[in-house]
Amino acid sequence: MRVIRSVAAMQQLALSWRRRGIYVGFVPTMGYLHEGHLSLIRRATRLVRPRKGKVVVSIYVNPTQFGPNEDFARYPRDLNRDLRMCRAEGVDVVFAPTDRHMYPGLKEGRFSTFVVEEQLSQRMEGASRPGHFRGVTTVVAKLFNIVQPDFAVFGAKDWQQAQVIRRMVADLNFPVRIIVAPTVREPDGLAMSSRNTYLGPAERAAATVLFRAIQRARAAVRARPVSAVKLKRDLEQFIRAEPLAKLDYIEFFDSTTLQPVETVTRGTHIALAVFIGRTRLIDNARL
């Protein structure tokens, strides 16, 4: 397995693969890998191996998708641990650039080009974290230009992000197929996330309220459609009954357009964000 830190070196390798017709799968991550990330890597590996292709995993905590009061500085990082996990999964290349390589001149105000999606990114995470998706689309566009993949695998846990990336790829004609792999959960339903490491024992127990709320919504629509306003009010009360939980948002929407719905039925998508103590967690599911 090769570890590449330089943008120029990664791009040169990617272009040499493209000239030779080598099929490339890509898994972008912010590191501190867990079983959810490994499921994305395994999906990429299954797709490239029959074609004798390559799997590239990026490990980069992207500063431009964090707000000024968010957890960029304390976001968990352990590159050596991540490299061991990637090596065990048969990854061909880990691209782990520095801020200096990815955003030259950012701190000095000499980086001024960003990619902005203006429709799907406005609600939910976009409303709660202004500027977040500008950072996401910019770094993903840069990574696609550097790695030159044939396809990229994203996790369904960040459903809105995946749809924003799909729209960017379509609108800007990136020759990259976007694959969205299922959310991986702990046995008690909590969606796997690097931020779960922030949780103390009591907070970890309380964090299951997100998945329990999803299950409650599924049960509510199993027999008949339900008013979105009524179901949202019920779930808000349910989450607020957990003392360590503070609700950010709950939304019901079309899974492709992300437009809100007035009536929740089987097949409607739910997304929610909840603070458990100081830790903000997100989850989503098709009902």
Structure description:
The protein is α/β, with parallel strands linked by helices. A six-stranded parallel β-sheet has the order 1-4-3-2-5-6, with helices on both faces. The chain has ten helices and eleven strands. Helix 6 packs across helix 7 and helix 9 packs antiparallel against helix 10. It starts with a strand and ends with a strand. The chain folds into two domains: 180 residues, Rossmann fold, CATH 3.40.50; 88 residues, Pantoate--beta-alanine Ligase, Chain: A,domain 2. The protein is globular and about 55 Å long.
Order of helices and strands: EHEHEHEHHHEHEHHEHEEEE
Shape: globular
Indicate the CATH topology of the largest domain.
Answer: Rossmann fold
Distance between the termini: 40 Å
Q: Estimate percent helicity.
A: 25-40%
Mean pLDDT: 97
Number of helices: 10
Overall radius of gyration: 19 Å
Please give the order of strands in the largest beta sheet.
1-4-3-2-5-6
Q: What's the SSE blueprint?
A:
Blueprint (H helix, E strand, L loop, with lengths): L1 E3 L2 H13 L4 E6 L5 H14 L5 E6 L19 H10 L4 E3 L3 H4 L22 H4 L3 H16 L3 E5 L3 H13 L5 E5 L19 H6 L2 H13 L4 E2 H13 L4 E9 L9 E2 L4 E8 L2 E8 L1
Parallel strand pairs: 1-4, 2-3, 2-5, 3-4, 5-6
Antiparallel strand pairs: 7-9, 8-10, 10-11
Helix pairs in contact: 6-7, 9-10
What would a concise description of this structure say?
The chain is of the alpha/beta class.
What characteristics describe this protein?
37% helix; 2 domains; Rossmann fold; Pantoate--beta-alanine Ligase, Chain: A,domain 2; single chain; alpha/beta
